[in-house]
Amino acid sequence: MKLLLVAALLGGTLTTPAEPPASPPTSISKSISTSAPRIEWGHCRLNAGDTEGAELDRAGAECGELKVPLDYSRPDGPKISIAMSRLKATGHRIGAMVLNDGGPGGPGLSMPLRLRTMMREAGTRYDLIGLDPRFVGRSTPIDCKLPFAGWPWADGASRATFDRVVRQQADLAARCGANAGQYLPYVSTRNTARDIDQVRIALGEEKISYLAYSYGTYLGAVYLQMFPGRTDRVVLDGPLDPELYGAQLLRTVGPANEAALRDWATWAAARDRTYQLGTTTAGVMASVDRILRVAAGPGLAIGKYRLDDGSAPVVLFGPLADDRDAARATYAGFVRTMLRATYGPVEPSAEFGGLLAGLLTPAASQLSSAQIAIVCGDRAVPRDPATYWRDIQAHRRTEPHFASLARSISACAFWPVRPREAPTRIANAEPALIVAADGDPRAVYPNAAALQRKLTGARLIMLRDARKHGIFGEYGNGCVDGKVIRYLLSGRLPAVDQTC
């Protein structure tokens, strides 16, 4: 679950969110208290429709809120709420571990349920803390009232589509200014790192452990830089290069996703009797090319939805971050539906319909709003649309399927506020364990080396021959899982980098 939205940085299948439970008020509460932060713990379920809270309650977790400054330069000013869950250790306790599932903008409240199982014998040794980061989920959520998922969005095959997407992205930025403007100056990874340290203090911990995926690796690196000496065991899986993180972070992943698409095409060709997409790699790729060609013309009518050259590449991009057979089969089903739609209207499966609803309607507005606000709040981007058009044109030949997506313009080019702080420069020797796959299509492998150069106390576990974003506990690789679990139990990093 590295990315909750297909629009999110790291793959995974988007589904339409269930009707959300009643959330805490989004208004800023006033407080002048200067006492130590305190968490009020209680039941997790908010109401009868809160299935997430009910599942946490059944597992024996507890949930709480912590009031933190909206603006850390005014610690006694307005406060916002940070929502969290805690699944207490049942074995010999090592400490508290904060979890982050990536995104950016991914809720983390239910992560302890999944991680306790994934961590096996280490899972019972920690108090597992699932956080909804600021402005996400139950943590004073923001909602820009977006008409569709928004980022990233392909800039299309023609100048006409590009100009339309420019107008759409400008509109998204204006909506965020109108509907969440009071919060936008305070949406940043640095402030989220400060929130985590407030959680540490409120938990009464001298040090916390931290395990995160994708964007969470950047958040973890920022925390290590801002709060040295306050972590015990740190696992960063699917690492991002801190120098590249921001709204343009996908500019380096086009070639990796082109390669992942070709690999999937070879897999699908070997199963042509099932998917009927082509008997050779070239034949399957021709089917994909037809989908994009028709999407750029009359479009693809799938149920009540229509895919064009702005949205079709997003659908093709999202599921490529997982090369396991089950994920590839799901992807093949989506492609087959889109191919049939090139000949006339079709109906989607329930799963594909859920993805399209999340992508093309306001259903995922709250999730997408937080994601866009975080990437725009962290790092400024070029504001001239011509910069993006030239970049796409220069790479269409080498990245024919994904240049218009990986290099697209975003709402950040029109963002109504500038970042209040410069991006964090990561340079320290804090200990950490980095986990990376050599074929990761989202956080490409050079990111791992770049992060390790900045975290000189870190060790790296590299998994060979895997095109998967997020490995530990998810990919089923016993070598990686065993090494991570040994570190979590012992606290000792490997003496040298490891390969699985």
Automatic annotation (TrEMBL):
Leader peptide range in chain numbering: 1-18
Family: Belongs to the peptidase S33 family.
Pfam families registered for this protein in UniProt: Abhydrolase_1 (PF00561), Abhydrolase_4 (PF08386)
Gene3D superfamilies: alpha/beta hydrolase
Protein name: Pimeloyl-ACP methyl ester carboxylesterase
Gene Ontology molecular function, alphabetical: hydrolase activity
InterPro entries given in the database record: AB_hydrolase_1 (IPR000073), AB_hydrolase_fold (IPR029058), Pept_S33_TAP-like_C (IPR013595), Serine_prot/Carboxylest_S33 (IPR051601)
Keyword set includes Cell membrane: no
PANTHER family given in the database record: 2-SUCCINYL-6-HYDROXY-2,4-CYCLOHEXADIENE-1-CARBOXYLATE SYNTHASE (PTHR43248), TRIPEPTIDYL AMINOPEPTIDASE (PTHR43248:SF29)
Organism from which the protein derives: Kribbella solani
Keywords attached to this entry: Hydrolase, Signal
Biased composition (Low complexity): 25-34
Region annotated Disordered, chain positions: 14-34
Domain of life: Bacteria
Peptidase S33 tripeptidyl aminopeptidase-like C-terminal domain boundaries: 407-500
Domain (AB hydrolase-1): residue spans on this chain: 96-276
